[in-house]
Design brief:
The structure is a single chain. Strands 1, 2, 3, 4, 5, 6, 7, 8 and 9 form a nine-stranded antiparallel beta sheet that branches. This protein has four helices and nine strands. Residues 1-22 have low confidence and may be disordered. The chain has 177 residues and is an alpha+beta fold. 28% of the residues lie in helices and 36% in strands. The longest helix has 18 residues, at 2-19.
């Protein structure tokens, strides 16, 4: 009972802090505009289950809208794993969005980098266990548009916001499994 109270207080504090943060930002530096998006949810599942579901990127089709196809293209499911992905773009166009797993710390961190496509962000899922059956997940995405894409930074920010917001759908799917 004491653990549940502490867990609930910590989850509430994390949620309160997160609510005060902007979902996305376009930050201008000497090198151009860097776009950042972030979203956090608390999931009523153990970190081991949350990580396992995220680490199998073929599950993305169940919680990320716009995925037309996704498949593993490597033998590993850990650091260095690669995936071929086709997503629905503007006007329904099919856009390649292949990616590689760049960080893999079981039950804690899963990072990726998009390697094919017109915009190539990096992304990261950070997990914090709140006791044996609750996990806070923060999904961040960053990209520094180059060339003509720099003129589209605000549109890219909206797209990244929409992408990290799918974490709400992830929560719904995982809590029903």
């Amino acid at each position: 009972m004491k653990w549940n109270l502490i867990s609930n207080l910590l989850a509430s504090a994390v949620a309160t802090v997160r609510q005060g943060l902007a979902a996305s930002a376009v930050v201008t530096s000497d090198n151009g505009a860097m776009v950042h998006a972030e979203h956090t949810v608390t999931i009523d599942r153990p970190a081991v289950d949350v990580f396992a579901y995220l680490a199998d990127a073929t599950n993305d089709r169940y919680w990320r809208a716009g995925i037309i196809s996704i498949e593993s293209t490597s033998e590993t499911a850990a650091h260095g794993a690669t995936y071929k992905q086709v997503i629905r773009g503007p006007g329904g166009a099919h856009i390649a969005g292949d990616f590689t797993i760049t960080e893999y710390q079981p039950d804690q961190v899963l990072g990726f980098e998009v390697t094919v496509g017109p915009v190539r962000p990096t992304g990261r899922f950070a997990l914090v266990a709140l006791g044996p059956a609750r996990t806070v997940v923060t999904f961040t995405m960053d990209v520094t548009p180059t060339g003509g894409m720099r003129l589209m930074s605000k549109m890219i920010a909206r797209e990244l916001d929409a992408e990290v917001a799918h974490l709400d759908d992830f929560k719904k799917v995982l809590e029903q499994v």
